[in-house]
Amino acid sequence: MIMATQTHSSPFFSPAAWLHNLVQIGGGYALTTERKLWLVVEHCPSDELTPLMAQIVSNHDRVEAVRLMIERRQIGEAA
Fold it and tell me: Is 31 exposed, middle or buried (0-12, 13-18, 19+ CB in 10 A)?
């Protein structure tokens, strides 16, 4: 089940909540040393994945926010 998050049109976006929601539906993620974002979505139900992905598709600022959140987690700055 997806936690309540803001819609695609909302000015507020929480990369931490977005990553949490991805993991909650069975997904995963990785960030390469070249900062390439890999999303693992093979086992995610499409009815839950579609609205989640709609929040970041074609939105460079949100994708960059997700990258930064992962980087912060990797160096221990964020939970």
Answer: middle
